[in-house]
Amino acid sequence: MIDYIQIGKRIRYHRIQHGLTQESLAFEIHTSAAYVSCIERGTKKPSLQKLVEIAEILDISVEDLITSPSQGKDAPHNLEDFVNRYPGPNHSNLLKDLTEIITILKLDGRY
After folding, report:
1. For each of the chain's 111 residues, which pLDDT tens digit applies?
2. Burial level of 83, CB count in 10 A (0-12/13-18/19+)?
3. I need a labelling partner for 14 at 20 to 30 A (CA). Which of 55, 57, 65, 86 fits?
4. CATH class as words, domain 4-70
5. What does the domain layout of the chain look like in residue ranges?
6. Rounded Cα distance, 24 and 8, in Å
7. Torsion of CA 96, 101, 103, 109, to 10 degrees
């Protein structure tokens, strides 16, 4: 299933990284700033053609817009895999601290 809210967030992120306003992106893809705003909020579903145009302007692939980074083949599958990417003298402390933080967030209902 395509998550248009996440696509919108990725578009917004890359737009800002390129120093573009919604108005300037809209101008480049021949649409309105209001439409770009709707796409970024996930309230409108862009056509494949608009996604291609946006990707070209933002110098990324359409796949980068529609695929979650966590769906990548190199994504960590659990907390320990994540921590293993950052080995060092405090490796075990990092894993312990992150596990404790997640436990607290779960107890608070925020995770």
Report:
1. 788 999 999 999 999 999 999 999 999 999 999 999 999 999 999 998 999 999 999 999 888 888 765 444 454 455 666 666 656 666 667 777 777 777 777 776 655
2. buried
3. 86
4. mainly alpha
5. 4-70, 76-108
6. 16
7. -170
